[in-house]
Amino acid sequence: MPGRLRTAPAAGAPAPVPPAPGALYLAVVVLGAAFAPHLITLFGLTEQLVPAGRLAESMAVLTSAVVGGQALSLAASGRLAEAHGPSAAFAVAVGAAVLILGLALTTRTTDRPAAALRPAAGAPAGSVR
Each residue of 53-64: pLDDT tens digit? Predict the structure, then answer.
């Protein structure tokens, strides 16, 4: 990797524009469109399953876990891309997605605890938390 590419971000200078900014823009849009439903589902399920008194703590832990997981995965995929090319990093991402899909399908339950179906104290009439 050329020295100017390593030192430009550290010096606060903008990094060089990629050769195909349109393709990069398209990739970011597609990934962003996939990431938003993930976050909405994650936080929505947490809100439904965690007792109201622990909701703030649970959201804080969940946010930290998401950020920490992203940091670790970006570091690992960056090293893989440098050592074996971008296809290796993408293969790991696809493998992780397949693993998560398998986990979601095998641990999915349709039964919800009865406590989750009762309205929370002070909730408006007709609402179920």
Answer: 899 999 999 999
